[in-house]
Target: ABC transporter permease subunit
Amino acid sequence: MPNQTASALAAAPSAPKPATRASLPLAWLGVVPFFAFATLFLILPTLDLMIGAFQTPTGGFTLDNIARLNQPTIISAYKISIQVSLASALLGALIGFFLAHAAVSGGLPAWIRPTLTTFSGVASNFAGIPLAFAFLATLGRAGLVTILLRDLFGFNLYGAGFNLLSFWGLAITYLYFQIPLMVLILMPALDGLKKEWGEAAAILGATKAQYWRHVALPVLWPSLLGATLLLFANAFGAVATAYALTGSSLNIVPILLYAQIRGDVLHDPHLGYALALGMILITGFSNVAYIWLRTRSERWLK
Model:
């Protein structure tokens, strides 16, 4: 009898499951503005620049724009841009690392970290003409710090060889947004260092220097290198700050690109597109390397 009951239950048609509504369209609806914005203001302009680098003014195909990148002025512009970006990236990474480490595990008061994080979030996006004006008002020839150093300490900053409208002046200006960006990127990586690792190293007799050299830095190295590459790309593509601060006195790629597309003297838009293509390749490589290194570091910090 139990077997017959079981057979009957098995043979009975199961109750129909309630139809589930497709939630995919509603789930994707929230990201539609993001994709629309990225397409209109990032993907389409980038494609237009890449196509324009291989076109003549009449719309025909040519490689002459790419060949003309071999001019001494353009090669020098790329060289100076890479040097400025590398200097600001390395200094920003070094200073930002020590700031982030002090805030995360330096034993400072609890209010330091949220204050530093808030300031870093604002300062990392403070660039362009306002940043250039702020540095001119601070470290220019008649800037506040320059006058204070001269009147209070008798030190002539510009007499000692400093010039804000120079290579190191631009690199120092870039540090204003490079250091906070490094702090924001590196704090989660430092949070991922487990306290048990340090305790285990101390139990085994390792000093703090040995712990950092053999445990912490190897784990953090992908994050450090990836963040430095991101800072490099961030500085390499900056144009508004450099143009507002130095004008045409410093031959870097963003200013030369602006002169080719919008200028009255060096007006050659398609050569400007070729310059932009070179910048896209350099910054694109830096960003891809950053994403790859960040993926590697996340496997250790989980």
